[in-house]
Amino acid sequence: MTMNLLGMPRRRHTEFRLFGGAIVDLFYPGISQVAVEEKAAHMPRGLALLDELLDERQAAPGDDLLSRMLHAQHNGETLTRDEVRSMVALLMSTASEPVGHLINVAMVNLLRHPEAMAEVRADASLIPAAVDEAYRYDGFGKLNLPRFPLEDVELSGVRIGKGQQVFGVFASASRDERAFPDAAVFDIHRDNRKSLLFGDGPHVCLGRWLSKVVVETMIEKLVTRFPAMRLSGEPVYTQNTFFRKMVSVPVEVGR
Ligand code: HEM
């Protein structure tokens, strides 16, 4: 999805995917030295391909986000090449994975809660609420993007020094009884307006509305196309600092 949005040519998708994966993985604290070297090896090729593409779109703009970023003007100013590169890195790191994870989480939780699944099948307008609840109840995002206090602060009795890196923990916020009474219950009718699924404040997720449309459409297709689908085992997760990544989900789709 991100590659199409940016207008990356299909023949280059595999190479850009390796580049995008490297950007994401190199961001993780605690990554091993071997992994750093393996991932960093994809960077020069990825950057060269990106620069090639930026030159092309500079000369002949298309109807894609890259062209728009290159040619956007505000008070006569345009973005520098480094600013566009850094926006691409931000989009490739934030947008490449979470949509797929949310589809998995929503589907698995509906399959685990047959009453909710029956309601959603009978009334597709409940799908957005069901997706929000699945994420709150069984979220895949562990942490928000880091924040750095501008001065020393004390929060809930903990002193945080100026410039220290701070992460919010979504799993904890999503099960906070003050925001979500009976937080341990999966309830597609609950009020999820306090959900932090897409962050909050000035840095709220840029892809929020696009992601919601994609995920909700996909869930509607899956529940209507496969009415007899059921879980035939437990999902398998990989270890990852930022995401609870579901890498496989055994299902029987039935007829
Ligand atoms: C289900 C899918 C997605 C989820 C759950 C999600 C969630 C998030 C979260 C939690 C943040 C951090 C907010 C914070 O730290 O306060 C974030 C930031 C961001 N997301 Fe998403 N995201 C999704 C998809 C996307 C997509 C598809 C795009 C782009 C097309 C995107 C672009 C961004 C960007 C650019 C930021 C950084 C915003 C900033 O720092 O100002 N995201 N997202």
Automatic annotation (TrEMBL):
Which key words tag this protein in UniProt? Heme, Iron, Metal-binding, Monooxygenase, Oxidoreductase
Give the stretches traversing the membrane.
none
Pfam families named among the record's database cross-references: p450
Top-level division of the source organism's lineage: Bacteria
Q: Which PANTHER family match?
A: CYTOCHROME P450 YJIB-RELATED, P450, PUTATIVE (EUROFUNG)-RELATED
Please state which protein family the record places this protein in.
Belongs to the cytochrome P450 family.
Protein's name according to its UniProt entry: Cytochrome P450
Q: Which organism is it from?
A: Amycolatopsis albidoflavus
What lineage is on file? Answer: Bacteria, Bacillati, Actinomycetota, Actinomycetes, Pseudonocardiales
